[in-house]
Amino acid sequence: MKNQLEFTLQNRKNLHYILNNTSKEDLLKIPDGFRNNIWWNIVHVIVTQQLLVYKLSGQPMRIPEEFVDKFKKGTVPDGTTTEEEMKTITNLLVSTVQRTQEDFEAGLFKNYHEYTTSAKVTLRNIEDAISFNLFHEGLHLGSILALRKMV
Predict the structure, then answer these.
(1) Using an 8 Å Cβ cutoff, are 50 and 68 in contact?
(2) Averaged pLDDT score across all residues of the chain
(3) DSSP collapsed to 3 states, the chain
């Protein structure tokens, strides 16, 4: 699991760079042919990781609940964000993965509620969740890179 969490952390550092080096206008723009924007994809990976790892383990998530409501699977961006939200997300990008590493090493994730993803992958334990999350984040990094070319 150490490698998967290190790879996730590197992905989050890449997203952190994109977030800090893309204008707010470009982060929020939804190009023709797309359903979402760079901002939504960045927040969505944080939300999904928290749901897959913490919520399905019966642990409290390390993010505000309002982010879950706005950025979980099936939601669409409203084209807005606040400076406070941007600052919070900037801080959560890396810190949530670092915290997951600490919590995993401390043995926090003892129980796991089995879950079948929309990709038809059944997650049976925390190791499955961490591995699948890395795959999920890779998909969204690809979307973000495509979006960057379009804005």
Answers:
(1) yes
(2) 97
(3) CHHHHHHHHHHHHHHHHHHHCCCHHHHHCCCCCCCCCHHHHHHHHHHHHHHHHHHHHCCCCCCCHHHHHHHCCCCCCCCCCCHHHHHHHHHHHHHHHHHHHHHHHCCCCCCCCCEECCCCCEECCHHHHHHHHHHHHHHHHHHHHHHHHHC
Model pTM above 0.85: yes
C-alpha 79/C-alpha 63 separation (Å) is: 21
Q: Strands 115-116, 122-123: parallel, antiparallel or unpaired by DSSP?
A: antiparallel
Number of compact structural domains in the chain: 1
pLDDT digits (tens, 9 = 90+) for 30-71: 999 999 999 999 999 999 999 999 999 999 999 999 999 999
Its domain, for residue 122, covers 2-150
Segments of the chain scoring below 50 in pLDDT: none
CATH number at residue 62: 1.20.120.450
Output the pLDDT for position 13.
98
State how far Cα 12 lies from the chain centre. Answer: 8
The pLDDT of residue 135 is 97
**Rounded CA separation 147/126 (Å):** 31
